[in-house]
Structures are given as C-alpha cells and as structure tokens.
Amino acid sequence: MRIERARGTRDFMPAEMRKRRIMEERMREIAEKWGYEEIRTPTFERSELFTLKSGEEILKEMYEFKDKGGRHLALRPELTAPVIRMYVNELKMAPKPTKVYYFGNCFRYEEPQKARYREFWQFGAEIIGSDSPEAQAEIIALAYFIVKSLGVKAELHVGHVGLIRETLRGANVGEEKINNVMRLIDKGEREEVVGFMNELGVKEELIDDLICLIDLKGKYALKEARDHKIVASDSSDALKELEMLLEILDYYGVLYTLNLGIARGLDYYTGMVFEIYEADGKLGAQNQICGGGSYRLAALFGGDDTPSTGFAFGFDRVAEIFPLETKDLKSMKVVVVPVREKNAAQDVVKEAIKIAFELREFFPTYMDVMRRSLSAQLSYANSINAAFAVLVGKNEMKEAKVTLRNLDTGEQEKLSVEECVERLKVGFDL
Ligand code: HAM
C-alpha cells in the first residue's frame, strides 16, 4: 500500500538537506557572534500556553489534541510563547538581558499553498528583559545582517503597533476588539476594518484617522502622523521610542522602510514591529520571510512583567530563495574500493576498512557493503558523484600503498595513505 505524506508536510532529499544545513550553520554562527545562546523547547506544549493570550479561536489554527491522560496539548505553532514559558520556569534568575536563539519546527493548521506549510521551521532570537530602542535595534540589525549574509534580496519594514493601538483606544475600542482590528489590518482587509469599526459605532473621522495612519509609509511617515495629528497625544511615548530606534538603526547601517501599517498576526506585540519581505517576487503571496517585535508575555505565564524583543525567520521560505545552487556544492566524497579476488577477500576488506577509518578523519568516505566487483564499485562511485576512488588490492597491500583514482580524469597514482590524504586535501581545496 502506497502511503502519501500528510498534507502540508514535506520530505527533504539529501541535496536540499545539504543546502538547509549550510543556511542553518550560517544563521547560528551570526547569532552566536552577536552573543545569543541556543535553547530548545518541546515540540508540544499545553494548549493554554497559546490560548491564554489569543483565546480559544487560535485552536482552529493549531494541531491540538488530548493525550491518553486527558491533557489538552498542542504542537507548537511558534516558539516565542514556549521560550518565555521556559524563561519563567527555568531562567528567571539568569542575568538580564537573557539573549537566546532557537531553530525548530512549528505546526499550523493552515491551508497549504506555495511557501505555506503545515510543518515548517523557524530560526529565531529573543532578547528577554528589554524592549528599549537599543534592544529593538539590535534585534532588527541581527535579522538584517543574517539576510545580508545569506545573499537573499529582501526589504525590511519597521512599524509600531503602539501607534495603532493608541489610536484605537482613543476611539474607545475595547482591548479585545482591538485585537480583532489588528488581525484585519494584518491581513490587509481594509474594507473589513472600516466595516467592523462602523459596527462598533466609531465616528467616521476616527476611522479615517486610523486608515490614514496605517497607510503611512516611508521617510516622512512620522512627520505626517504628527502634522495631521493622527497619533493621539498619549501615544507620543511610542513616537519618541520609534524615533530613537530609527536613529540607532541608522548607526547600524540598516536600510529600512518605515511602515506604520504593520499590525502582525500574533496578539502579543506591544511596541515596535518589523517584517522582512523577499524582494524578487519568487515566493508569491507568502513573501514574508521574517517577522518580529517587542512584546510582554512573561507575566501572563506567572513571571514578572518582562519586556522582550525578538524575531523569527520562516526558514523554509528563506531556503526557497537562498541563492546557493546544489550544483555549486562541491561533492566531497571518496569511495574506498576493496579489490578482491574471488574467495580470497577478507584481508583486502580488512585493510580497506582501516584505510576508510583514516580518510574519514577528513572526508566523507564510502565503502562497498554489497560485495560488488571492481567495475561495479567504480560505477557506483560515479553515480553518487564521488570525485575520487581509493583502490585497495593485494598489490597495494604488499607495497603498503593505495591507488588514488581521479574519477573525472581517470588519472591514478600509487601513494602511501598519508600522501593520499594530502593529495585529497588539495583536490578538495581544504
Ligand atoms: P510569524 O510572523 O507568525 O511570527 O512567523 C514568523 C515567520 O514564520 C513568518 O515571517 C514566515 O516567514 C514563517 N511562517 C509562518 N507561517 C508559516 C507557514 N505556514 N509556512 C511557512 N512559513 C511560515 C512568529 O511566529 C513570532 N513568534 C516571531 C517573533 C519572535 N516575534 C517575537 N519574537
């Protein structure tokens, strides 16, 4: 019986995995250089972790279930809530700010489409203990330089949900309804925003103010918000914070577009928000490769109120546009070929195993496990794109040597194992 993959999931072939591994390592390396330490949380959590902030509605978008003990669990749809839960439970006493990064799979019960999956991976970082403009700028700059180092063409947009929330509060929209409006803004559903505000009985001019605010984009967005008095006076703290943040981003040399219409899909953001979009149109509608911002979740999970700032990359989306082609990846494979004469094989195999051990110190090394003939072993070596074969036969054994064969050119020479290693290092550019 042929069994298909579950909807919205993927298999990754070796070439794809090689590429993903390169990306992952690059991301890790940068995060570590910026002083972030890796953490890992469980794949499933108690469902309340995700419903506490967003309400039962969110269950529709999650893989949630009861286990055999009747506990209500969910596969994690993202990693920020789990990281803050872990912080409250385990890391409260750690020096502040606590800077962590993570790489893990997430699950969302969404309609699968191009670059939108039900199982996908996130690479993210969080500064726990600060949402100062300095912390916000560092988080944005980290994401920005990760994108740059991967050679991906992208655009960074920075906004502030404080401005939108304050405008809504100024229009007497209740907290719960504010989240509804934010979600509509996030989805780009302008008409629905207006319709919903009308239903709530919000005055026409206040609705206009909101629409005007979320349309503000570019260099003069802040000035326009001020000049038109769109931003309520009690949110001026948000404005000041945003101004300071932008100034620091300039010191970092980060290029961004100010975009006051960013609302983000998750409910926990309190201040700065940012998104990075792929710039070449290769991802279609799902072009957001990274999202983040400032939030406060620790108090909700039983800890002290702790300002935090973070982001997560959609790793799969970045992988889809990562410019490294698999053919660019040098195949660093060596195949050790025991050349056995009929029925007299064991000493040659023994020697080949010993030599493979030595080569494995330096190179991915294969060895026959199917008792194949010399020519069958060489044709296998070719078919897996190995660059070199190391032949081990009776004659070589007598001379304590091996025959190194370049599978591209067919050239071969007899060498000691040490010489062979040196030759391979040169061949592989090591
Ligand atoms: P998010 O925007 O929901 O934010 O997800 C982060 C990134 O994950 C998105 O920008 C997108 O690239 C990717 N992503 C989301 N859903 C899918 C999907 N179904 N298939 C493929 N990729 C997807 C968060 O999750 C926040 N926890 C980010 C954060 C960290 N905020 C503060 N700290």
Share of residues in helices: 40-55%
Low-pLDDT stretches are none
Q: Going across the major beta sheet, what is the strand order?
A: 1-5-6-11-10-9-7-8
Query: For the residues shown, what is the average pLDDT?
Result: 93
Q: What is the tally of beta strands?
A: 16
Q: CATH superfamily of the largest domain, called what?
A: Bira Bifunctional Protein, Domain 2
What is the percentage of strand-forming residues? 15-25%
Task: Please name the CATH topology of the largest domain.
Answer: BirA Bifunctional Protein, domain 2
Treating each run of at least 4 consecutive H or I residues as one helix, how many helices? Answer: 15
Oligomer: single chain
From the coordinates shown, what is the CATH architecture of the largest domain?
2-Layer Sandwich
Q: How is the main sheet built?
A: 8 strands, mixed
Bound compounds, each kind once, are: histidyl-adenosine monophosphate
Classification by helices and strands: alpha+beta
Distance between the termini: 47 Å
The top level CATH class name of the largest domain: Alpha Beta
Short description:
This protein is an alpha+beta fold and 430 residues long.
Write the layout of secondary structure elements.
Layout: H1 14-33, E1 37-38, E2 44-46, H2 48-54, E3 64-66, E4 72-75, H3 80-91, E5 98-107, E6 119-128, H4 133-150, E7 154-160, H5 161-170, H6 175-186, H7 190-199, H8 204-214, H9 221-227, H10 236-252, E8 257-258, E9 269-278, E10 288-296, E11 307-314, H11 315-321, E12 334-338, H12 346-360, E13 365-367, H13 374-383, E14 388-392, H14 394-399, E15 402-406, E16 412-415, H15 417-427
Parallel strand pairs: 1-5, 7-8, 12-13, 12-14
Antiparallel strand pairs: 2-4, 3-4, 5-6, 6-11, 7-9, 9-10, 10-11, 14-15, 15-16
The structure holds histidyl-adenosine monophosphate.
Residues 78-80, 108, 110, 115-117, 120, 122, 124, 126, 265-266, 288-293, 295, 310-312, 314, 316-317 line the site of histidyl-adenosine monophosphate.
